[in-house]
Amino acid sequence: MMRNLVRGAAGGVLATAVMSVVMVAGERAGLMGDQPPKRIVRAALPGHRYRPKPGEGVLGAIAHIGFGATAGALYGLLSRGRPVAPPLGVVYALGIWVGSYAGWVPRLGILPSIPHDRPGRPLVMGAAHVVYGAALALALNRMNGTDPTGSGARGTG
Questions:
Q1: Is 156's pLDDT higher than 50?
Q2: For residue 100, what is the DSSP state?
Q3: Is residue 149 part of a domain?
């Protein structure tokens, strides 16, 4: 169990780094506005919740990595070291996105819900979560030396 937890967390950190590339690309293309992790941290810090605050960018990145590691750890526990097809990782990650961006994030007034958000951000965030889920599944399969096709082949580790 501990091995699955640790491998999942490590896979979550890696997957968060890869998804962050998509998010930064979306920001540079003018589709994002503020990054959601930065907005979440901004809302949590003392002071006016909609004004930029010192350190929110760094704290947002740390929070994002922590959230990704936690989601990866949970996924590692759920997979129990068995092979995982990347589409299952994608479904898991899209579930996190919908649960967050149609659930607690708008309910706390941090960002609008997915259909009411600025044009472009939902597309970027959906794509970023697809990348996160696929990267997480691939990373776990690699760390576990498993083959998601079920052919019984094992990686070299």
A1: no
A2: I
A3: no
